[in-house]
Each structure stands twice: as structure tokens, then as C-alpha cells.
Amino acid sequence: MKLRERIIALLQQADYAPLDKSGIAAELGLGKKERRNLDYEVRLLLATGDIIRIKGDRFAIPKDVDLVTGTIKFRQKGSAILIPDAKKSDPNPKAIQINAEDTSVAMHDDKVVVRIADAPPNQPIWKNRNKKPGPQNEGPFGRVIRIQKRARETVVGTLCKTRFFHYVAPDDPRIIHDIYVPPPEESGLKPVPVVGDKVVAKLHEWEQRHVNPEGELIANLGKTHEPQAELMAVLHKYNLNTEFPPEVMKEAEAVPDKVSKNQLKGRRDLRKAFTFTIDPDDAKDFDDAISLEYPDNKHTRVGIHIADVAAYVRGGTQLDKEAFERGNSTYLVGIVIPMLPRSLSNGICSLVEDEDRLTKSVFVTFDKKGEIVDVDYANTVIRSNKRLTYKQAYALLKNDDLQVARDLKLPPSHQTGSTGRALNTLSDEELGKLQKSIRELWHFASKLRAARFKKGSLNLDMEETKIFVDEKGYADRLEKIHNDESHQLIEEYMLLANECVAREMKRNRLPCIYRVHDDPDEERLNDLREYMATWGIETSDLNNRAELVKLLETLSAHPQSRLLRTQVLRSLKKACYKSTPDGHYGLCKNDYLHFTSPIRRYSDLVTHRVFNHFLDKVRGEPALAEPGPRYNASKAASIAEHLSHTEVNSVEAERESVKVKLLEFFERELDKKPQTAFDAIITEVRNHGMFIELKESSAFGMVHISALRDDLYRLNASGTALIGRKKKNAYSLGQTIQVEVHKVDRFKRQVDFRLCAKQRADNPKPKIMPMDTSAPAGKPKPPETRGKPSRRKGNDSDETTQPGPKKFYRKQKKSKKPSRSASSARPKKAAAKPAQPAPKAAKPAKAAKPARPAKATKTAPPAKTAKPARKRNR
């Protein structure tokens, strides 16, 4: 048994009492050599959360002392959740809710130790009685008792000043405390930061929650909200660097910018094959190309050619080490932070037009029916005939008239690594050949796509919004990117190449890095089914793949398609890298890895090196001069874990960049006269306004109820619409409206919109809405359903979703006692006169007018019908 397993076994014993390191060593009977390894193993177990340190430097299993370790995630209002560390015994632990007053001195993303409890710590039970239902009010609860590891040593923000001191307001709204700093004149920075500058503050030790954290200024990034300053802020926050170390640049400069004759040894020469690339307008590098050949009259061979980065980045070099540390390229708005120096990523490795390039190729032969009859692999050299954009490829695919494609403009040179030749400079013969090739490629790709979805692959494709910048770096325009046939064509061949290579690696048991998407949790899918039911979408057991596929088909035609499909994505696990071929749930593939993007992903570079060994030892292809390093299972597992972390970091940086540029774009919209009218869909309705999604850009914002000036609007009982009290105008979930920008808060990262003065008469009405059993607008709701609190889950907000204004219910509580005594006094008076005639005995019922306070507002529920709801809430 390994030392690590022996330590855990000791701590799990029923009679174990917490011991320190020397006590554990003595209990295990460790010798001098083993004692040296004890420190290392204990550090590892602490880092993974398998054991925990308690008072007196003693160690225990966390659950034995009601403690949990994990990462804390803050909400903007101060409360947080703890994401516990996953363990083999519990790979998907439940999140723990932490109230704002119980977060101690933790900051967003810190590794912390939390003591768990069934109810919120430090809070009487009566305080939770009237809280609305929601994930933040559902247990388990916890309280932070210790910080294991800080997520950051620095904070990026804006320098501000009060009358007496300076402070930094963090850019990330989830860091809820301002950072006190000394006067900028004492920082020694040149130029000296002034109020309003974007700065970096180094954090000091923070030990007392009632005092704000302190720090010192270490960098001045420029004026807040200017493009360069915002870019530098994102780079610093996510530890990204646009520059490479001198030793890396020295190796990169030594790489020749042309393919030499010596490099052609052991490669198939495909420079005469008709080859082209299809990429986005703003692509900086080109790592895949497609060719089409006809071995005979019955078959078509498609060549999928991938840039051979391994031919230039040798294992163990400074280039390789830097590429490994970066893990992948990061694509921020308007700029790429490459994994490799630009002389390689945009130069010798990039499959630019009309240049010889080294590649690794997968050849797939189809018969006339579109069935795959053969797959082959080789190291090759190609020469791309044309660089196409997706728009150009789509025009050639869909239009018989070549002039339509010729009329398309080239992308601006500052947005792309290579524009390629304009289509209007090509001859009819070359352009016709391109058109024929693209249409034939789509013929086979469409069959691959249909077969993939028939097998059970999940269609999770969603439209994306691309933000383009001008030459100064400002957000210039938004463009929705449709996943049309030109995108699908390339996607299908890349998926096919990845699957074919993965199958060979697995079959031959070659240590490699696989792309894995684990099966979803049954509980998460059951929660998803319940959530869909609130929208009137009935589903069967979503743990059955066929039902999940059916749900996605239903959502494709739903007005809230993006919102609901995003919820489906959140119910699935995240894909990651592993050294074991565990399959890909989303794609419904048993064998899958990344092979097709070695310029921007280190995992693909590792695959290419293993691919060299496969060609040499398994396929018997001619060996290259330098085949590259070999990997074992342990090394592959270590690389996979590191690459999963770097990928997450890049994705978060890209999202941050998009948020910043969207805010910049909408802020510039405020200065336009007249302002742009945006089509929007109402995605959620609250008593303080409605949340919207812009159709064209998929950006989210809010129309506050104060911006609805034509009437007094109130939330209906089911929480699905805001209805005007006088005019009875309604704004419902799924409704299309026209809005313009009203206010942009760059610090809170929020955009407020207002309704345009003129709404289109042909706005489509919502066809599919959440289940609403309420009466039509303007009619009173049946008493048995009126006054009930909304059951929709909310976020961390103090806003209530209870129908009607809050003041009305407070008044009812105050007038509750008098109205009850008035109604009970009358019958007693009537009972005292039994000899009176029947008509007169009816007078007490008629004299029930003193109960007018409950009758004053017609749109609000009467006092009598409100009573049962209050009792039930208790």
C-alpha cells in the first residue's frame, strides 16, 4: 500500500484521534526515508481536500469534524456558495450556501475551509420564515473558518479617492470590498496614477472582516475604460502575456520561414492536389485545409490536412516549455494571445494561401452513397490554392451565380492574419472549381451530420455574437454568427478526423490525451425536467438520451431557445482532457480527442507527436528525421490536468473581454443621435422590471419598471407579465419589443434599456409561455390561487416576486386585528335580539361596511382571501 493510502486509512479508523505529523509517522512506523516523503504526501492530500489541518497542526478527515474544503464563489450582494472539492467517493458534491455575514475574510475564488450546518449559522430561525424560495435559501449552509489559499495576490480596479484616503474599486463586482491603498505619490510609479486610472493593487494580509482589505499600487495600466487599459486589465487578471521570453523568441527566430527540401523526406507530396481553407473573417492563423481527389469513378477521397507544428516545436525546447505553460491560445475581442510566437502561429505553421506547408493528413474515402470505405494517414506537404471565409464558402454553396461571391468584400487587413486573393480576381474556371468542390464536400458532410444526430449526438449549437473593433481598438459593430452550412461543413470533417485518430490511438494502446465529456448526473437532469415543466414543456426521463435529443429539437423552435438551451448546457458536465479514452457524451462518440488545431492547443501538439510514432511503428510509413518525444500514461495524465486548467482560464478571460467590449459598444450607443432601436425578447419578468435579450447580439439587459412611464405596472399573480393598472397594456414573457440604451454602468457591468417611443405593430406575440393558470389581464383571479407567492427560483436579490405592491400587504397586516373584531362584533349584537323579524335580522350582514380598508383597492386581494396565504407562508 502506498504511503498516501496508508495515511488516509489511518485517519479513517473509527478510533483515530487527530495527530500531528510526528504522531502520524510514529503510528505508521515510518523510517527515516519514509518520513521525508510524509511532508510531500500530506501537502498533496491537503491540496486535494482529502484531509484537513485543525488546531494544533493536527490532521483529520474533513467530514469527521463537519468541515468541507472547496472554492468559494461570491454573488454581487455579498453571499456566496462553496463548490466542494470533488473526491472519488463523491465526484459531484452539493454546493454549500454561505450568508454574507459568514464569509469571514474570504474573497472570490479562494480555497477555504467551511464548517457545515443544517441552518444558516449566526442567524435565528425566525429570520428565514418570510424568505422567498430559491437556491440561496436551500441548505446545506456553512461558515468560512479558514482560508487555505488565496486565489489572487493582486486586484485590478479603478483608483478612487474620498476626502481622507485613496482606495481601489475592483473591476470584478464579485470582489465586494474596496481595497485601501496609500497615496499614489508614494507608490513610485511613473507616471503617477491619478483618480480614474486603471491600476493594479498588491494585496496585504487581510485578517479582520470589519476592516477593509489593504494593499499597495504596483502598476498603472492607463485611463479607465480606454481600450488599451481594459485589455491590460484582462491580461493581468488572468495572467496572460502578449510577449514571449527572450530565450523563446531566440528559438523562434531560428526557425526558417520557408519549407526546405530536407523537410520533405518521409512525406507525401500533395502540392498539386486542389486544396483550400475555410475560416472566419478575422482568423489570425490557419491550421486546417481540405482537398478533394478522385481515385476512380466510384470513389471520392477527402484529405483533411492539419498544420504540422511538431515539425518546428521540438520536445524539451524553450518553445515547447512556453507552449505547455500557456496551454492554448486565448482569443480576446480584437486580439489573440497566441500559444506560439507569431513567426510560427501566423507564419511557417499557418496554412496560408500559395505557400508550401508541412502537414499531417487524414484521408477518408467515400463511395457514391456517402459511406466511408477507407481511412488512411500520412505526413504530407501541401500548397493551399485559396483562403476562403465562411461567407465566401456559403455564397459559393448556395448561389449558382458566381457574381454573388465575387461581390463579397475581403475582410479588413487589421482584423485577420491573411486576406487571401479577392474572388473577383479569380478566373471563371478556378472559381467554378471551388464551387464544385465545396458542394461535393457538403454532399458528404451533410450525410455525416445526419448520421451523427441519428446516432444520438446532441445539437447544442447556438448562434454567437462576434464583436468587431475599429483600428483604435474600440468596439465598432456586432454581428451574429449563424452556424450555417459553411461552418457545419468544416465542423463535420474536423470531428471525423479527431474520431479516426482517437480510434487508432485507443486500438494500439498509445498513451495520449483524449477529449472527454462524462455522462451527466441523474439528479441534474431530473432538475432540468422540472425546470422545463415550468415553461410548459413536458418531457420524459431525460437520462434517456433519446428524450434529451427530443427536448433539444423542441427548444430549437421555442421563443426562449437560447435561454433554455443554456440551461440544458448547465445541466451537463464540462468537457475536459484526460489520459483515458472515456468517450464524449455530447457528441455520442466512444473515441474522441483533439488533433485538428495544434497552432492554438497544446493537446493537439501532443497528439501529433504520438501520431508520428503511430505512423512509424504501426503503419510502417517512412520515419521523419526527428519523430519527437514519447509519453507514458503518468506523463499524459499530468499534462491533461494542466491543460484542463489553462483552458478554463482562457474561456473566463474571453468571456470577460466580451463583457467589457459589449459595455463599451452600448456606452457609445448613448452618444448616437438618433439612438439605435434594438429588437428584444422579454426573458424574465419581476416586480421591479423585465429582463430582455437582444435578438441580434444576444446581449442581456433590463428595462426597469420606472422606465414604463405610460401607466402604473404591476406583476401578475403568476409572475409572467407586467400589466398596466389603467390601460391594461401587458408585457409578457416571450414578447418582442423595441428598446434603446438608457444607461450603462461600467462598474456594475449592467446595461439598462428603455422602450422605444414607437413599437412595431407587427411584433410577434409570445406563442409559448410558462404555465400560467392566472385569469386574463384585467379580471380578478380566483380566490383560491390569489395572493400565493411566486415559485419561480430567484437569484441573490432582495426584490420580491409576490404579486401586488409590498405596501398593500403591510397595511393588511396592520388592519388585520380591527377588521376581524369588527366582523365578529356584529353577529353578537344580532344574537341579542332573537324576537326581531327576519328582514331586520339581516341588517348586521348589510352593515359590514366598516371593512372598507380591504375593499379600497380593486386590483388587490381582499383581506379575507389574504389570510390563508399568510398562514401557509408560516
Please provide a written account of the structure.
The chain is an alpha+beta fold and 874 residues long. 31% of the residues lie in helices and 22% in strands. The strands form 9 sheets. Strands 13-20-19-16-15-14-21 form a 7-stranded mixed beta sheet. A hairpin with a 5-residue loop joins strand 27 and strand 28. The chain is globular, with a radius of gyration of 32 Å.
What share of the residues lie within helices? 25-40%
What portion of residues belong to β-strands? Answer: 15-25%
Side by side, the strands of the main sheet go: 13-20-19-16-15-14-21
Number of strands: 33
Based on secondary structure, the structural category is alpha+beta
Low-confidence stretches: 125-134, 768-874
Major sheet attributes:
7 strands, mixed
Kindly report the average pLDDT value. Answer: 84
Rg to the nearest angstrom? Answer: 32 Å
- The termini sit apart by 56 Å
Please tell me what the overall shape is. Answer: globular
| DSSP helical segment count | 21
